[in-house]
Write the structure tokens for this entry.
Amino acid sequence: MKRIAVFTSGGDAPGMNACIRAVVRGAVYHGLDVFGIRRGYNGMINGDIFQMSSHSVSNIVQRGGTILKSARSKEFMTPEGRKKAYDQLQKFGIEGLIAIGGNGTFTGATLFYDEYGIPTVGAPGTIDNDLYGTDYTIGFDTAVNTALEAIDKIRDTADSHDRIFFIEVMGRDSGYIAIQSGIAGGAELVMVPEVLTPISEVVETLKAGWSRQKSSSIIVVAEGEEEGNANEIAEKIRQQVQSDIDMRVTTLGHIQRGGIPTAYDRILASRLGLGALEGLMNGEKNVMAGVVNNELVYTPFKDTIRLPKPINEDLLRMVKILSV
Ligand code: F6P
């Protein structure tokens, strides 16, 4: 393999730039031609492809977002879109791809290989940490720290005004950000999509706190929580408690996706970028590079897509114990 390309796809995540840098510098080190594709699969379809050098990735290791930009491409999900993408890759002579993204990205790469035989190795880039095959994904640690900083600030107001705050964090189908930021932020309860927390349990927890003279509480809610979003949950609780308790809801939203990546994310991203590149060079295809128990491993896309990554329920138990 002489010529490869790298792209980022799906939601951006802090550390993606450090990953791009590792792919590009690794390719230069190993004597490969390396191209960047802008805006994920959309750029592949439109031929938004350019040659990169060591210099193209100078001064980006510390930057959030992605210099290659990102998109969730609907067109690539059609056979016509993939044909256009293949024609563009042919035009540039690209023989292999490094995809930095999540499950949607890897689903696209699998279809593409089945139809056109272009091998892809993935690097897990998503703040949600919901990918099987790696202990942590690129961006998760930064997102948790961003959420934590917000929780710490909100706690000051919760305490000053004797309020209950419901803080909604990201995680479409996953409670990883909620549980980590909730534990670190000393939340009274964490609600995640993976484990049902009935409203009655939330009410009980709050009442138990009041009986112990607890005057403020923080409840962290993951975006994908089954009982509804943080506003809906707060409303249900207001109805059940039927008192004029002072409640507020804060949705942290996209502030969790941006920002300077933590040292942990930069190091993980560098390791996964180089690991993905060297995997591709060694003949790996349709796999995602991951770090499990501090070892670099490759997991087939079909498993990262299909298999759930369960949260550690013991951590939820700990939240309850530590909030007495
Ligand atoms: O997958 C990462 C994520 O941040 C999810 O937690 C969230 O549901 C989603 O992306 C939001 O996507 P968008 O930026 O397209 O609204």
